Every structure is written in C-alpha cells, then in structure tokens.
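Render this sequence as a predicted structure.
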Amino acid sequence: MCAMPRGHKVKNGYASVASLAGADDYKLIAKKCTEMGHKMGHSTARNVLLSAMMKVADALHRSQGNIYTNRQLFEIARNPTFQSGVADILNGN
C-alpha cells in the first residue's frame, strides 16, 4: 500500500474502523495486539484489516461466479460502504 498520488480523488470516501459503533481505532487495535504479544503498529493493523476484507470480498464474489484481480479486490476492500456492510452482517443487522 502506498500513498495516493497528488491530486488523487477518492470515489467513496475514507473508511475508518473508529467510525463504526463500538469499534476501536487502528492505534488501539495495535496496542492491544502488542500487549497480547503480537508486536504491531497502527499501519500494520490497517493492512491486516484490509487483507481480511480482501479475503471476504474474494469469497463473496467467487460464490457469485465472479473473479477479480488483487487490485480490484483491494479497491472493494477499502470501500467504506463495503466495510460497513460487512460490519452490519457480523453484528447481525
């Protein structure tokens, strides 16, 4: 994951773990992981979350018979609407 080029416009806004009700931000997640013995920084926590979201997106799309590239899955995984939908499903909403 790299920084966005100058002038880049994000289509769907930015997702933030902390924007979900009851969720911790990346720094707190990293701190908790480090306390549990898994040394982690906040950027690693973000990358782990995005990796998991990519796996969810891939499984959902494959179940529908669609195959996407890693770049396409990354774009889906970082979409705040997708992340919010996954959170709603996990919370039983």
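Summary. Residues 23-90 form one domain. DSSP finds four helices and no strands in the chain.
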